[in-house]
Amino acid sequence: MPRYLVTGCAGFIGSTLTDSLLADGCEVLGVDAFTDYYDRPAKEEALSGARDHPSFTLLEQDLAADPLPEHALEGIDGIFHLAARPGVRASWGAGFEAYVSDNILATHAIADAAGARGLRLVFASSSSIYGDALAYPTAEDTPPSPISPYGVTKLACEHLLAAHARDSGLEHVALRYFTVYGPRQRPDMAFTRLVAALVDGTEFEIYGDGSQSRDFTFVADAVAATIAAMHEAPPGATYNVGGGSEAALRDVVALVEELAGRSLHVRYGERAAGDVKRTLADTTRIRSELGWRPRTDLRAGLSAQLDAAGALAPSTG
Ligand SMILES: NC(=O)c1ccc[n+]([C@@H]2O[C@H](COP(=O)([O-])OP(=O)(O)OC[C@H]3O[C@@H](n4cnc5c(N)ncnc54)[C@H](O)[C@@H]3O)[C@@H](O)[C@H]2O)c1
Predict the structure, then answer these.
(1) What is the 254 CA–ligand 1 centroid distance (Å)?
(2) What is the tens place of the pLDDT at every residue in 48-103?
(3) Which strands make up the sheet holding 238-241, listed edge to edge?
(4) What is the pTM of this model?
(5) 64 CB near ligand 1 (under 6 Å)
(6) Are 207 and 259 in contact (CB under 8 A)?
(7) What's the pLDDT tens digit per position in 174-226?
(8) What's the gap in Å between 11 CA and the centre of ligand 1?
């Protein structure tokens, strides 16, 4: 039975990945520090299924502060490194220090451990390394130009892993996720805020005029790409993971209203610093090299997220 280490196992994507590995019959050692980026109860809830599973073990630890105990890596076949401080808005100003720690220092530490043990490491990078991209759809060889401190830390991590590869022979794969959504999505992300506003009857704030568009990726598709990368990607590869469902935020609002059978109170606020105008992944490389493709379109994925929150209109369910 393969045994994997999943960092960030209590987070949105990490917990979904953990559940998927356990369902495939793998053993999982999950590491998470339950950082304060958002509340612990949401993470506990996300991890509750795994915690009850006999093949799951949790190690609560800050990867940036302490090295992994020697025994933690015994019998491990590969590392999925998803632990990070996400989100662009909070990465400005005094918030940056925590991004340096949770993203750059933690990745350096896990790369050291993986390199020393000859373990493959799949790293969760981000479309934010492209900034306002120089070309759309954006291919992996488009020159990166992040416009947020968060994006800078993710790009730094990619370079850090490449440096470790030269030094220790570390086998790594970087996945540039494009806006992931679905059940358990982080509370700071737009769809979760949208659903909460619907359920609570409160206002939904759009940062900017709502014309900003994203290539939305359903979480199960992101997880499938992540597992495929562990098994099949050549060492050192980098892939875009994009759902192929580009939509402007204001069109998402209309779709959510349709699926929920209710109207939202929308307020337009300031555009957030570091938010890019558009993302759209060119996924030719991952399709041809790993045979991966997104399977869930925006309507189906949003329905699943609304359903999980009990906000889907009965007729749509
Ligand atoms: N959600 C997206 O749309 C998206 C897009 C691009 C990239 N990513 C990347 O995917 C990964 C997962 O994102 P998510 O949305 O699930 O975020 P998340 O915040 O829900 O999960 C990250 C988890 O990592 C843990 N963590 C943070 N710092 C840690 C540390 N120093 N030591 C141990 N654990 C630590 C947190 O407690 C959290 O549970 C992140 O690396 C993120 O940057 C996410």
Answers:
(1) 29
(2) 999 999 999 999 999 999 999 989 999 999 999 999 999 999 999 999 999 999 99
(3) 56-60, 27-32, 3-7, 78-81, 121-126, 172-177, 238-241
(4) 0.98
(5) yes
(6) no
(7) 999 999 999 999 999 999 999 999 999 999 999 999 999 999 999 999 999 99
(8) 6
